[in-house]
Structure prediction request, 123 residues.
Amino acid sequence: CRHFIPKDEVPPELQLASSELDADVLAERERVSLLPAERQMILARGLRRVYKQPRTLILLLLVLIALGDVALMLYLQWGLYASLALNFPLVIILVLLSRWWAPLLYVGVRKSVHAVRGVALAS
Prediction:
């Protein structure tokens, strides 16, 4: 799910000016710009990826909730099908609502690693 990916801005010190780009990157950028865009299979601009470690406390809380759910099902002696009948719709609802709760995994986490690419791809 795309909602689990941090969306931090690229810091200015990681943004490359055109003069700092590798000669191969500049040549590829020029080659791609001359190609007709409507006939290309892939066109990507401004590729970047942000890596961030989620908060351990929130992950621990999620694991404890899942373990508590399993322990409750075992205590109540629910069968496998009854457990699946309850938990499967809950998981679907959680995934559908991840737009609102997934960003909370990164609240307060300041350290992020950025991988930035300055080339466009075409085939």
